[in-house]
Amino acid sequence: MLLFENISLALNGLRANKTRSILTMLGIIIGIASVIAIMTIGNSMTASMNSSMASLGATDITIGVSQKSTETEVLGGGMRFERGPRSTQMEDEDLITDEMLEALKAEYPDQINGFKLSEDVGTGQIKKGQLYANVAVTGANETYLESEDLTMLAGRKFLEKDQSEGKKVCIISDYSCNNMYDGDTEAAVGQQISVVISGKYYHYTVVGVYEYDSSSSFSTSSVEDTQTNLYLPLKAAFDQEHKHAVYSRLDMVTDTSTDVTSFLETVSDFLNDKYYRKNKSFEIECFSLSTFLEEMQTMMRTISLAITFIAGISLLVGGIGVMNIMLVSIQERTKEIGTRKALGATNGSIRIQFIVESIVLCLVGGFIGIAFGIIIGAFAAKQMGYEAYPSLGGVILSVGFSMAIGVFFGYYPANKAAKMNPVEALRYE
User: Fold this and answer.
1) Which residues contact 104 (CB under 8 A, 6 or more apart)?
2) List of residues 6+ apart from 359 with CB closer than 8 A
3) Mind listing the pLDDT tens digit for each residue in 288-347?
4) Distance between CA 31 and CA 27 in Å, rounded?
5) What is the helix (H) or strand (E) element at residue 366, kind and residue range?
6) Is the four-CA dihedral 16, 19, 20, 23 of positive or negative sign?
7) Bridge-partner residues for 123, per DSSP?
8) DSSP-assigned states of every residue in 153-222
């Protein structure tokens, strides 16, 4: 009998025995729906986590100066001698310089996009008569400001000339603008402001106003007392503090094609071998959030796999149910099988007929389970505040698994039907 005729017979059988077919497929539906829902929720959580970590700079590498670890030297007589850092106080010569960063960029130009450099100047207030605005003053280079993803409402960001010459210009928030200029951002641009930091007055010219993201603030203070960032060119910040451009910690922006995990060691080895080999107290250490991200992804996959395995038990129960109903179906159709064999049907055609019926039963249950799984998974993801990401791989796997269950649990009943004696089958009451 042709394949399509077998499929047609199987579908007719499902329609003729709707209640029995639905109850038989219930285990398959629940199992597939559970697996798809779990994979959808897992994908949604992972995607949300990846997005959050990326916004925090998960692909960045943090380079920092740290104390060298204590070493234990065992003398000839068995005595132990602790040999540790000679100094715990960092001096300028222990810190990272622009020259070091330029050498690192020149050595690995394809892996490094830039460095986020900043200098914390301190907190203070913009003062104008009785008006004030609380600010945290930060010197920042172009790469750092790009990472802040500022939305400019008026004016501009720093020019290259502002950075190189350390001009006394600044970028303030719209919150500061609300306090000082009644929210007129255009009026604020070009104005000279006075900022009091640790009792000293510093004067800057406003060149830009950015939109402050209040959702990122955990402050419970009033709008008037909200503290926002005031940005200076990096050189201006160092000049104001009469300091050299040196850093104890900074973030390096890597190219998207860079394997951050392996590049960590490359960077630390380069800087330590070239600049810190003779330093008795300090060395370079590198780390990245990508390491934690990979660990969290592995943990998520392990949890999803464990729960999926538990949900898969219902698939086994469903498969046994399919085998049971196929045996019942064969029992009911004994005379039909005997008639077909008497008319010349081969064992193979009988076997194929019942295997196809089993596969169709499982596939219908599988498709219903996939639909329910996507709906349940999307609903659960939405309730948890995540965007739903149904697993295409999970859908394909579920369809294949449904077919496999149909073949595996349908073969024994089909083989039993194929081996029936046609004479005995025709006599069956």
Assistant:
1) 112, 267, 270, 271
2) 402, 403, 406, 407, 410
3) 876 666 677 777 778 777 777 776 777 777 777 778 777 777 776 777 777 777 777 777
4) 6
5) helix 347-383
6) positive
7) 136
8) EEE----HHHHHHT-SEEEEEHHHHHHHHTT-HHHHTT-EEEEEETTEEEEEEEEEEE---GGG----S-
